[in-house]
Write a sequence for this structure.
C-alpha cells in the first residue's frame, strides 16, 4: 500500500507517540512531546520534531539510544515496504517565539518610557 508523504508523516507521528507513551520504559522520554514529522519524498528519511521538559542532553541521549528500537516497532506497525530512518530534532519554535515576544515587550516599554518623559520622537 503506497502512502502519500503527508499520510505517512501523520501515521509515523501517531505510532511514535503511542510507542513512546506506552512501550518505552525510559523515564527520560516521559516528558517528550512530538510536534511535527516531515517525511522525505522517497520516504527513506523522517525528521521528527519534539519538545521535552526534562534535561535536553539526557533527552537527546535517550532518543539516540531508543532510535533502533523505535524504528523496529514502527516496522511492525506501518504498512510500508521500508521504514524511514529517524532523525529527532528539538523543536525550538516556541522558545524563539517567547524570546521574540520578550524583545518586543522590552521595545514597547522603552518607547513608552521615552514618550512619557517628554522626549518623544517626531513623525517620520
Amino acid at each position: 500500500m503506497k502512502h502519500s508523504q503527508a499520510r505517512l508523516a501523520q501515521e509515523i507521528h501517531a505510532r511514535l507517540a503511542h510507542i513512546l507513551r506506552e512501550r518505552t520504559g525510559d523515564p527520560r522520554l516521559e516528558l517528550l512531546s512530538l510536534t511535527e514529522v516531515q517525511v522525505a519524498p522517497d520516504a527513506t528519511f523522517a525528521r521528527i520534531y519534539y519538545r521535552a521538559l526534562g534535561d535536553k542532553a539526557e533527552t537527546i541521549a535517550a532518543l539516540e539510544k531508543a532510535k533502533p528500537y523505535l524504528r523496529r516497532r514502527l516496522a511492525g506497525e506501518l504498512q510500508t515496504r521500508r521504514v524511514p530512518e529517524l532523525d529527532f530534532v528539538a523543536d525550538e519554535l516556541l522558545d524563539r517565539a517567547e524570546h521574540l515576544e520578550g524583545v518586543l515587550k522590552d521595545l514597547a516599554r522603552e518607547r513608552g518610557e521615552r514618550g512619557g518623559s517628554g522626549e518623544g520622537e517626531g513623525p517620520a
About this structure: Strands lie at 32-39, 45-52, 85-90. The two ends are 62 Å apart (CA to CA).
